[in-house]
Amino acid sequence: LLVLEKWLARNQVQKLVLAVFQRETEFLLFLEELQKDVSEEVLKELFEAYVCTRNRRVADVKRRDGCSQRFSLDVVSALRKLLLRAPQRAQVLLEFFQEEQGTHSPSIQQHCSLQNIFVEFLRDSLKSLQRLQCGSEISELDQRELTDIIYSVLSMVTFEVEHQADELQHLFRELLDVCWAEGSPLREEKLLSCMLRKRSRGLLNLYSSVLMDKTREKFLVSKSAGKGSSEQLDTERTMMNLFSDHKEASSWKTVYFYCLSSSKHFLEQILVTALALLKREDFSGLSSLLRREFNPLSRLLVLLGWTHCQSLESAKTLLWTLHKTQVDLCNDSVLKDFCDGLWAQVEVLEWCIQQNR
């Protein structure tokens, strides 16, 4: 091997051949380690699939031999058992197929097929976990072991969002359903730490969109009539519910993903929601929204929303709610002076109306 390596290392083409040969040898040695866990037929199919991913020059020929087809049921069954008994080896197998994937590579189909086996395993594990919680299933695995397996598989799989969007959306919805169930051993923060890693922006965006849909479903069980588009009203109700929640850490986490999926900064979303409440003269909702972290925005909203006041009474209520009742701890002296001037004008107008009666 050393002599062959020296001979192949003379030019770039030979170096490439050497790398392919070396990696294929490593894969054969890895399959040899798997002999005690899987059958010879499964090993043969895995090797044929791997050779297909490496030999791009003969990809068309290999396609006729069925290299781009899905794995057989025997391979699927063997991999699921491997995930339970030796997840580290399953991870190594996935890495072998992942290395050579590319946009135009035939390996992308094999890699996604392999990933889909992992995704289906996760979904089945979640269903088993739910049945265990309900006491409707007797299993060799207890809740803690099953939870650890779910975390382990999530941490090893690198998802292809472009090619697996539908499968991942279903998986994320089921993960959130289990996480949000009362007494669930799964923790959303741990799931995120397992999934999010380098180059996972697409995965994060997909998770955000699923979380946004689930959050809307959670808060918007009953929809009341109101002005504006349905999407606008949904956003307002969702933001109001999130910041009416006493669990601040959970609210901020959800708002982060919610705003990420809508491509808006959270302060922009808060201002838009507050202005919508102001236009409808929902001052109690406005006060509730601004009662904690966003209290420093109160006087800014007076400036932004002043022209939306439809009457002297609404203008006075706005100033009373967002200006007169505020404690001067926000270092907003310019805005305070502006609001003091508006309050003086309102008092003058009120005096004029009384004198004309």
Automatic annotation (TrEMBL):
One of its GO terms (molecular function) is phosphatidylinositol-3-phosphate binding. One of its GO terms (biological process) is mitotic cytokinesis. PANTHER family: ZINC FINGER FYVE DOMAIN-CONTAINING PROTEIN 26 (PTHR46591). GO terms for cellular component: centrosome; lysosomal membrane; midbody. This is Uncharacterized protein. InterPro entries: ZFYVE26.
